Amino acid sequence: MNILVVGSGGREHALAWRLAQSSRIARVYVAPGNAGTQAEKNLVNVPITDIKLLIEFVRREAIVFTVIGPEAPLAAGIVDQFRAAGLKVFGPTQAAAQLEASKDFAKAFMVQHGIPTAAYRSFSDVVAAHAWLDTQQAPIVVKADGLAAGKGVVVAQTMAEAHAAVDAMLQDNQLGQAGARVVIEEFLTGEEASFMVMCDGEHVLPLATSQDHKRIGDGDTGENTGGMGAYSPAPVITPEVHARALREVIMPVMLGMKQAGTPYTGFLYAGLMIDAQGGIRVLEFNCRMGDPETQPIMMRMKSDLVTLIEHALDGTLDKVEVEWDRRAALGVVLAAQGYPMLPRTGDVVEALPVDREDMHIFHAGTRWQDKKLLTSGGRVLCVTALGDSVKLAQRLAYDVAENVHFLGKQMRHDIGYRAIDRKKLV
Ligand code: AMP
Ligand code: GLY
Predict the structure, then answer these.
(1) What is the pTM of this model?
(2) Which domain holds residue 152?
(3) Residue 422 — pLDDT band, cuts 50, 70, 90?
């Protein structure tokens, strides 16, 4: 059978690559895909992004089901439109995707359903926001309500920074409609981890845990990015934390969404802050898989992802389990010069090493031109490796990453350090 993955990033490359390993798959179409998906066996790029045209394509090619990668089409209602056309699609509806598309919605939902999260206030009036800030102390966090591609969160170390962030969003409209409302919330401390599950509206199937590195610089310094690397599993998610995440976060989401008449289907991502006592609070929800977390998670997935998604589409996720490679996986993102603010594109990526069983280079911002591989976005590649420990996966990923060349390449040198430090402590 043939299936379709919508999106063009490293996440979609990893999902499509894993789906294509299924013995039942002839082709995985990727719309629009990137240079990596174009070169991969059994993957075929389709240059379509318009939802109506995608529906026509799926009908014409008798695609069995579609998996949606990124948040933008989900927030635009792609799942609702596919379903209305009678097509099978894995992802949340527009109503359910508000958990990511509106931070104000997500916070109100969490309060309503008793899901632990930072205390907050929400404002669309700039004067009221400043007045409230005057009663608070730094550090404090200012977030744009809407989707802002990782640029909507300011962790303000001083009140001046917090006031400036409010002005940038509410007064100067620097993030457009996404910043027309802001959520101002309490600063949380602890260790972050990514907790992702598959949902069928009723049941959930937890995926392997992971941890992302969001800052551009080593030691978690500098600007926030979409993610500079990730690894799986994340040892901070102990079995106790795992149980709490399901009980205190994921199940209340499922129940709350069902009660609201908008059952949650698709991947669900809870970004958690875990304190020293193992207490958890939700930093954010995403209505999709994380990028780059998906890359190491897909490297570790041994079960047939096609079968898992079929169960999700049939409402029988309670009838399956996922088998994981017991090795750790770690991915290092190679980003373009100027990322995250002003990434330069069009640089030539020199010959890449061949993928192997324990190392895969997932593409994100790449395209082919005249048989040359060119950079075409902020995050260019994610070199992902398996190893018997995080340390060994890290070594292999960096051995490869160091030898990939393009002008202005940026990467962190410490992906996985928290897991490795934790090992040293025990
Ligand atoms: P978000 O998009 O909401 O996950 O925010 C992006 C990043 O900002 C998170 O991964 C955290 O590193 C940081 N962050 C967000 N909210 C908070 C908070 N309440 N306290 C501390 N850091 C936060
Ligand atoms: N890596 C974080 C995210 O996908 O939002």
Answers:
(1) 0.97
(2) 119-186
(3) confident
